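I hope you will forgive my troubling you with a question about protein structure. The record follows directly beneath this note:
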Amino acid sequence: MLRSQQLHQHRQQSSASPKNRGGLFWRYWRSVCSSSVTIAPCCLMRVRLRLGIVLKLVLLVLLTLICLLCYWNLSINLKLYWQSNPGSSNNPLLNPSLKIFPKTPEERAEYNKAFHQHSFNAFLSDRLSLQRLVPDTRDPACQSKSYYANSQSYDNLTASVIICFYNEAKSTLRRTLYSIFNRSPPHLLHEVIVLDDESNNGISSFDVNFISSKIRYQIAPMKLGLIRARNYAAKLATGRVLIFLDSHIEVNVGWLQPLLHHLSIRSKSVALPLVDVIDEKTFEYSATPHVVGGFTWNLRFAWDPLPASVPLDEPFHSPVMSGGLLAVRASTFHAFGAYDNLMETWGGENLEMSFRYWQCGGTVYACPCSRVGHVFRSRRPYGEFSGRDSWLFNSVRLANVWLGPFREVFFYQEPRAVGVDPGDLTSRLELQRTLGCVSFKWYLLNVASKKMIRSLPGRFRHLLT
């Protein structure tokens, strides 16, 4: 009875409260809690608990949205940063190869076949962007050079780029061409001659002509080999400067201007870009070490350390060119005898050309503000169509023309060369006389690396006196 009286008294007090009288919420609250006054505190706790959960969920959703917006904004800003600052080695846009590898048996078979055919990871190359970014590997001082801003600093020189290839992978050839057109000022690029040396892998003009109207796709009249193919293409070129490039390269930003600027100052010079490294397996682009071209006494090309005192924003002497990548005035190229057209296929032509220019009044300079990436292969993926060792034959030819008495050092170091017929040397010896070339001794004492004199075998030391 006492309990009923207390409940009745509580209801009267509640209904008399002006704060709660007539409110829709309060009527609902009373209907929920009318069964017993002891339930009201429990209902209040439940409502507070539910409101707390709802508020926490709302806050969680808001925080999630804020995080997503921040992540999206950060990713966009990072992408813009990497695109405008591609030189960082941490740039994730530069190394997509880390995510591309053969997974299925069919893909592994495709990978092995392509690697055997091209001696690099063509499976990966086919899946990379044809217009990918590469890191700017130049010295920071290069970016402030006046020839980048002054279009009049090239003596009206325009470039004919020459690319000779045989059975090149379509993706690397296309990436080569895209890099040239994307990173070359149009007014300095006269044409790009693409010479197919009788490939049989199905490549055709349809695979490259769509890239630019400046491409001149040609098919060699017969199997020429790289050396003769370059001579053939050079005769077709109409630009004032010839730039020879391989078909598996990627030119870097600002690559063309330093070469043309140097040739505008030194008309009898060969200008070389610094050759960066594109890994044959991962296609990762990385800067070349600080090196300069040299050679050994068995006439093999070698990289020599570049002295630390040499600045990396100014051209410097290069005793030997690496071979595949060079620029030269067309008039100078032909006046200095082009390539030795009696050499076979490939090999040794870079040393022959280097000795010839240095000994006959020309120069060879490396231009470090010009960078070109090159896929360095561990082996040649094609054989000798001439049926003999082209490097050995070519080396015997150049030794008999340009080394003078020092050719005996070559035969001593390379016994296989003894007795090899060098072919007809008449035209090259006549060229030597016409150009008034100096001796190889002069080249050793004034141009070659000092290591060449130190490494000269004792029995030949008298040749220096």
Summary: The two ends are 136 Å apart (CA to CA).
